[in-house]
Amino acid sequence: MLTLLVLAGMLDGLRQADARVAAIAWRLQTANVATCRDVASLPGFSIETLDQYAVAERAEATAAFALYDLPQVSAVVPDSAAAKAGLAVGDEIAKIDDVPVPRAKGGAPSYDTTAAAEAAIAAALTHSPAKLTLTSRTIYLPGDLGCASQVQLVPGAPLDASADGHYVQISGAMYQFADDDAELAFIVAHELAHNLFPEAKRVAGSGKGQRAAELAADRRAIAMIDRAGYDVSKVVPFLRRLSRKRALSWLDGSHPAWTPRIVAAAAVVQMLVERPAGGQ
Length: 280
Hints:
Layout: H1 2-31, E1 39-42, E2 45-48, H2 58-65, E3 72-76, H3 81-84, E4 93-96, E5 99-100, H4 112-125, E6 130-134, E7 138-141, E8 144-147, E9 150-154, E10 161-163, E11 167-171, H5 172-177, H6 181-196, H7 207-227, H8 235-243, H9 258-274
Parallel strand pairs: 9-11
Antiparallel strand pairs: 1-8, 2-3, 4-5, 4-6, 6-7, 10-11
Helix pairs in contact: 1-6, 6-7, 7-9, 8-9
């Protein structure tokens, strides 16, 4: 019984972490929409399916969350269109625009079922409002206009964050490393910048180009968290603390040296802090 209680606590903690990341990402994406060429109608909620869980965890996920074969809402961003439409954690989605959703299939752990449902939601939101048929009711969801990208929390190590042009992934270790929402927002914003802004897009096979892209992503990220109302003064202390870590998978020459990186970030922060009232 103790093992099941511990597992239930871990699963609930993971849901809460997912909700926190989703809320921070939504705030960044909606606050910066005017600066992004690639925009999308954001759902403002997260889903999960039983297939995501390890086989040994599925019985507890079902007991803890009443999670069965349908996709279930695992987080709703406060103040989002989804929250205003009445969507709630625990709602099960049966159809999207009258098309039945993919159901959990069992077998080895896989994100495929969740990804397919997320893709269906995204497609429906391109001609919003999307019609979501829940097991208890039907809602029409207009979505929230924001910078296009999906942000995910990936449990476990290593201490890392990444972007592939469409997705942003934050590792569980990096999530835990962030002391507060401002630091976590900077991590998310840095990876979003790689997806969204040409000068910050990663350059394959080019060490110099890659290092320039990382500096550009830092600059963009600082501006993004500022627009979203996070404290930019947290960025430099965070980078200094991160620079003392030696187990970073990307310390391979693809990123700039720490000293010039921190100096460059500090200059951007200072410019924002010292700007005239109402200045951009």
